[in-house]
Queue: 4 jobs
Job 1
Amino acid sequence: MKPLNPPIKEWRNLRVWIIGASSGIGAETALLLLRKGARVALSARKTDALEKLAQDYSDALKLTLDITIPSSITAARDVIIQQWHGIDLILIVAGAYNEMRADNFDLNIANHLLATNLHGVFNCLDATLPVLLKQGTGAIGIVASVAGYSGLPKALVYGPSKAALINLAECLFLDLRPRGIGVYLVNPGFIDTPLTAGNDFKMPALMPAADAASELVKGLERGDFHLHFPKRFTTWLRLARLLPYRAYFALIHKVTGL
């Protein structure tokens, strides 16, 4: 069966921009692609983390930005275009996470999550879509989460923000693929990163960030649209969302105890 995106057969000299590269999946993916010979632009808020990440790769671009501030994204984009004259792949990995349930709803935290996880992605699209459309080639990947598949305890705002990204990636694929531009939707399960370090509940199939990056890159190379991992957990959640609500709610309660 023909893949939904063109397979990536060679990374050497490919121009990749990873937004959210300071830790976790973003950092490990950046290191993996640098080792494969790609030209990688590393972006995040933490300059020190980017410097440390790129210390063995003098040709890596280090571009500090905050995805909640559109002007910082466009400034970084302009540097990339000036130096590389184009972008082959943009990976939007940056995100925020807070546990929240109905009995501790906090509007300030909710707005922060939405500003980062959803509006921040739109800010990135505003800066990058014109570049890709003008080129008529390239690709964009959005990292959402399996928490966006369906409602889960403690994900009162995080889950909806990621559900919106899933829908967004599907819409982008329909619009961009006919224009020669690839779109990737990345839905990780529980990954061992700073975002999950504070969780006080059991995380099934917890995956090291380096392994997650490896799975992500393999999916890009295959030309998949939907990249999800670890599959022994994510496939279960994908199937669970097809259940009638009565059965779904009972199953989630039984598995989580919440």
Job 2
Amino acid sequence: MFTLNCKGRLLTIDQPIVMGIINTTPDSFYEESRKSSIDAALQQAEKMIHEGATILDIGAQSTRPGSTAVGPDEEIKRLSHIIPEIHQRFPDTILSVDTYYSTVAIHAADMGASIINDISGGQFDPVMISTAARLRMPFVCMHVEGQKDTMHQTFVEGDITTSVTDYFIKRIGLCTEEGLTDLILDPGFGFSKTIDQNFELIRSVSQFKLLGKPVLMGVSRKSTIYKTLNCTAAEALNGTTVLNTAALLAGADILRVHDVKEAMEAILLTRYLL
């Protein structure tokens, strides 16, 4: 069991939970996740909460291969109406902001977010970790290699499980030095990995759990699935459910998904197998 302090509110994870994805970007890789209007975002939030999501992860930056990065001001502009509206309408739901900019995290905290989900694990912004500690927000620390513009062309050499484990140990140490102890570990499925390495990450969830932090797996509709199945992201729901199930059986604590209902069903059914 894990307990996270989300700006004074305790989130207890004593069984796997779901983080639903809401994107305010015009170019996220899965078209159905794009909710740039307030009404669309609210409808998606309501649907995900009704289906069982514990956390809603709201992002304003596409990190798919080939995407063009936007600056913090544009992220803040995209989030400035969506997060406050969702927080006001659904105050009991925990909101996460998907950003690697500390300034965006600060603004998102003021808007109602209480978790920071950083694909760089604090590497892209030197004050992100200290900012998360000061804001008292749990920090999703993802593994990635390279920089913003090279992370999809830079791949881990050697054993992926060892590399990711070593990375987590170092990042946990840095976070602890800054007073940030509420961490969630994300192995970074689809980032700086080959297809074979992505599958290895799922087999290695139990290894990452030994570090004493909750493990998040975000495989939803990603290219490893649709390339392996020779389909599209829109057709990758069944494949996503298969890998979510494998991750749960290996010990995953949080599933970050586009499709909450199916993820909740996987959680319910795997509970009878563990």
Job 3
Amino acid sequence: MSVGAARAVTDGWIVAKRNLIKIKRVPEVLVFVLISPIMFVLLFAYVFGGAIDPAGAVGYKEFLIGGIFAQTVVFGATFTGAGLAEDMQKGIIDRFRSLPMSSAAVLVGRTTSDVVYNVLSLVIMALTGLLVGWRIREGVVDAAAGFLLLLLFAYAISWVMAWVGLLVPSVEVINNASFIVIMPLTFVSNAFVPLESFSGVLRHIVEWNPVSTLTQAVRELFGNTDPTIPVSDAWPMQHPVVYTLLWVVLILLVFVPLSVRQYRLSSSR
């Protein structure tokens, strides 16, 4: 590791601790982070579960949890953008610039601290899922790989949100902008309904949507798929883990340098 990279990691960890300390000062943030996954699990399992019935022997609750996992970590990545937009508004970014620290440290710290939020969300969501009937039917290694894949994808998306957070003028704007992008990304996927319910061009979009492959990957790793139902012939759905990891690498290669560059150019609003 080069001196610059080591400094970015060290300074980034200090910034990450600063962001995590905010939990003690504003505990309401953590409360809403933990309530959201519980709400989504219960809402889809009991309100929509009776109307949505995927074919095969797998019950909807087991089918659902993989999609809820994917949706929650993607939505959780928006905290990065909102946090940076807030720091820009308050002038905190300018204060960071005046300090002898790596220019990437603020972004590394922000994205790293948000991994903690996602870990807490996954824990609460998994416990809620177990209470409503979801089970992990594969080994510990596969299950751990599933959770790790979710966190990696969320981390990559957080860099996209970091770039957006440095571009938009306020927290309100990034909340609205991220909703417009993330909502169709998660709902035009196999997260909540089986792939067979889509047809034509829309089906191809769903098959190549990285949220679909993330959902399919974690379902396979948790053992929540029905072997009697054939998987789509589309390459991403045949290799969901590889395809999702390719997206993670691509997003990081594009948006890490873009975010660092935008951080250097941005000024407080």
Job 4
Amino acid sequence: MILSRRTLVAGLALTGLKTPAFAQSAPEPQRAPIELIEDSLDLPSAVRLGHAHGDVIMIEYFDYNCPFCKRSAKDLPALLKAEPDLTYVLVNFAVLGAPSVEATRAALAYLQVYGPEKYLPLHLALFGLPGSVNGERAIAAAERLGGDRKRLIEAADTDRTTQWMKDSFKLGNSLGFVATPSFLVGAESYVGGMTLNQKRAAIARARG
């Protein structure tokens, strides 16, 4: 384990409420409170991809040990290419146990040290790993991208990282996100996995 016992235990408090279920079919859209959408966009841990000021904003709440999130990440480059006017926002939502808490700490440390413009390669690399992704494996993946282990571990173990995780969890819970991944598209929420075509249909629906 690369992370301190103190910060790991603090992070584990995030996993106590629910174990997410996985959607087997396209989730139904639900109207989302605009203030919670705005709060999601204001999260300091949120990573914006694609168009800086897109005509539609799509926010994904994900966990690095979620198989449907892995599928979503695999589709992400194709989605960004197919939808050049889309703003896509990543929100770490560590809800699947201790390995996810550790992996998210490492990922958020990378975000803090190297900035959002360098985050996507790590995001794709973590989802490209076979099996369970924990903190050690996440740090190793970050090192392969040029990350500095010492700086990353120090950032992972800070109170700021813990607070970022708690803020995301609180918002996801308020939105009723009991499955990963879950999405906000325009003014609607979708709880559960979506294929590339389903995402594009939701984006078209948001454009109206």
